[in-house]
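note to self — DONT lose this again. spent like an hour looking for the file last time. sequence + predicted structure for the chain T wanted, 186 res
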Amino acid sequence: VETNALTKIYKNRQIALNDVSLKLEPGCVLGLLGHNGAGKTTLLRLVLGLHLPTAGNVKVFGKLMTPNTAVLRCRIGYIPTNPQFPQGMTPISYLDYMARLFGLPGQVRKPRLASLIRAVDLLHASGDRIQGFSNGMIARLAVATSLINDPDLLIWDEPTLGLDPEARRSMLELIKTLAADKTLIV
């Protein structure tokens, strides 16, 4: 990930980012810290190509990121600040749906779903409807969803928001583990 003089000014003339340049090498973990309104989420959305910069640019995997660069976004796993899931679905049906959207064939999809469900400790609830899930269970499902396409880059916006101390520790351990083969922006 590389940003060059990245600036974002919203229509109300609020400057969210001003002249941000950074270079994140593969295999790095970047933690963004700052108060509410500091521009952390704006930076993540610009990196994802969900917002257009006012000035400057973003390159991901050496290519310019734009709103039309779906081929780059297919290599990114994203967790928004407050992930939302279809309440009537089960974790396994939702992950299967997402895997199909990524075009994963059945012989790849099925073992990956099973592996992810176990990795995020949702095997016991894999057939339950999402509507009754706790914040921790939602966070773990979000992690599994962000990993479904085996991305090279993970962008997680406040993944520990609303988690109890034990779930927070577990999430931080997972980030350490994933840092062995992924690039992360948290």
